[in-house]
Design brief:
This protein has ten helices and eight strands. It is an alpha/beta fold. Bound molecules: 2-phosphoglycolic acid.
Length: 250
């Protein structure tokens, strides 16, 4: 079986660098050769976490743990107050960047056009874009066909004209995020197949993660499925024991 990716999305958590380092150390101690682990943390914590990891990493052993960013701006540098570009992130060893998370779309008013610019820049720079897509509840209520059409349209807009590059898609139905009500695993797998089909011609084999209320108990229902290549985990990634269970569910 191909290796699965378990990605954490810490969002605006935890409240301090000290707590971030503590959580990171607990997670870094977990080793599962069948899983790659990615920790997407707030920008501010990337440096202390990268330092911690450098000190922790046993010499000579290839790491299964990487640090990622929760967002990125599309300009490399310049007069863009608050902006942080892909190459700045890369200078901390970050090569994976989430883009288009539904919370960015909601709270920061990110449009598909903005997500598209981010995707272009990240892929052009040679980094891995983890593009988040997913339908709202009103669409899911109309059935799988409607949900698939919604997600395909999102992919088309978000990836319009982007260069071929390292792309991962996280399928995160909006209604499943933080609600305790995950998608039915068979629906998530059907959507993953639909996403792969839609992207195959341009990108070849694309990994599709599932995200939305994944926890230690439910993770295996998703990540053991052939079409689902891993999970993007929010709330449960903030509890080291819970996140360990998810990593070990593979
Ligand atoms: P959740 O969040 O695991 O808390 O549902 C997932 C996400 O937003 O990536």
């Amino acid at each position: 079986m191909a290796k699965k990716l378990i990605a954490a999305n810490w969002k605006e958590n935890p409240g301090s660098a000290k707590d971030a380092v503590r959580l990171f150390k607990a997670v870094a101690a977990v080793q599962n050769p069948r899983a790659d682990v990615l920790i997407c943390a707030p920008f501010l914590f990337l440096e202390p976490l990268a330092d911690t990891y450098r000190r922790l990493r046993p010499a000579g052993r290839k790491s299964r743990l990487a640090l990622g960013a929760e967002d990125v701006f599309w300009e490399e540098k310049g007069a863009f107050t608050g902006g942080i570009g892909p190459k700045m992130l890369a200078s901390f060893g970050v090569r994976h960047m989430l883009i288009g998370h539904s919370e960015r779309r909601k709270w920061f008013r990110e449009t598909d056009a903005m997500v598209n610019r981010k995707a272009k820049q990240v892929l052009q720079d040679g980094f891995t874009a983890i593009l988040c897509v997913g339908e709202p509840r009103t669409v899911r209520k109309k059935g799988s066909r409607a949900a698939e059409a919604f997600v395909r349209a999102q992919l088309e807009k978000d990836l319009k004209g982007v260069p071929k590059g390292k792309l991962i898609v996280a399928y995160e139905p909006i209604w499943a995020i933080g609600s305790g009500e995950g998608a039915r695993p068979e629906d998530a797998a059907t959507m993953a197949r639909c996403i792969k089909r839609a992207l195959a011609r341009k990108f070849g084999k694309v990994k599709v993660l599932y995200g939305g209320s994944v926890d230690g108990k439910t993770a295996r229902n998703y990540v053991t499925l052939k079409d689902i290549d891993g999970a993007l985990v929010g709330g449960a990634s903030l509890k080291a024991d819970e996140f360990k269970k998810i990593i070990n569910s593979i």
